[in-house]
Amino acid sequence: MTRAITVGVDGSQESLAAADWAAREAGIRKATLRIVHAWLWHPLDVPLVQDEEAQAKSADALLRQAETYVTGRYPDLTVTAEVVHDTAVAALLREAERSDVLVLGSRGHGALLGFLLGSYGQQVIASATRPVVSVRLRDEGTLPAEGGEVVVGQQGTPEDCAAVLGFAFEAAAARGAAVRAVRAWSLPPVYSYGAGSMRLIDEAGGLEPFEKKALAQALAPWRARYPDVPVVEHVEIGSGGQVLLSAASHAQLLVVGRRARHAPVGTRIGSVAHAALHHARCPVAVVPHA
Q: Any idea where the UspA domain is (predicted)?
């Protein structure tokens, strides 16, 4: 199966930034870049609204503009482009299924934009079964996307975070970058630990050594699989979002996990992923896991 990186575009500067990042990622991974624009004809009884043919031409022109922009900057890249006839969320979720990575645009500090407004971007990220990368339009003075570490948040058991760490290590290996694995912890209420947990903490020599040991155990199989990737183990007391954002202040990519399960009402991306998507200055990869 041909590997593909898919990016959704709408003609905005945010989506063109996403297309540029996706093209470089496709080059790094030796993958095909797929550019899509979701458009579905909705006839409206409103004066001055374009008819179906005119809207279809506008959608195609928008897509070709993005395709021309990318092929002009990356002439050796294999690129396909298609107008997808469906609603934005449904189209992108379907495209994510057939891609290694789905890429969306974001304005960074605030709501997701890309080619989606309001809650649509978060709906895609919360429901996709494949990694989704949110790329913001970089401000003047921020680091170039190719500099810095790949920072990844780690929590839970080694099995919980396998997909997240695997994505981060693969990305770092492809870039020749280091991985900074971050595990945040806080002082829990005394009653939150059972006898078994307290025994493990005592054996480790305390809470912080326990957290460091947990991070080292989670990283061990990935260090073995990617022996040439430098690894920095970062354990810090504090809230997950704050610790991760601080550690990623000079990163080229931030990788966070999202539990692939439905909340009682709708879907959720989790507080750490939410903080990263809205405040990180670098692209953010959200990786679903069990």
A: 1-136, 158-288
Question: What number is the average pLDDT over the span 185-203?
Answer: 54
Q: What does each C-alpha distance from 138 to 18, 105, 145, 281 come to in angstroms? A: 10, 11, 9, 7
Give the pairing of strands 132-136 and 284-289: antiparallel
* Those residues with Cβ within 8 angstroms of residue 230's Cβ, 6 or more apart along the chain or in another chain: 178, 179
pLDDT at 115: 38
Per-residue confidence band for 183, with pLDDT thresholds at 50, 70 and 90: very high
Axis-axis angle for helices 162-175, 13-29 (nearest 10):
80
Under a CB-based contact definition with an 8 Å cutoff, are residues 273 and 242 in contact? Answer: no
Q: What are phi and psi of 278, to 5 degrees?
A: -90, -20
Domains in the chain (CATH in brackets) are: 4-136 (3.40.50.620), 150-289 (3.40.50.12370)
CA 6 to chain centre: 13
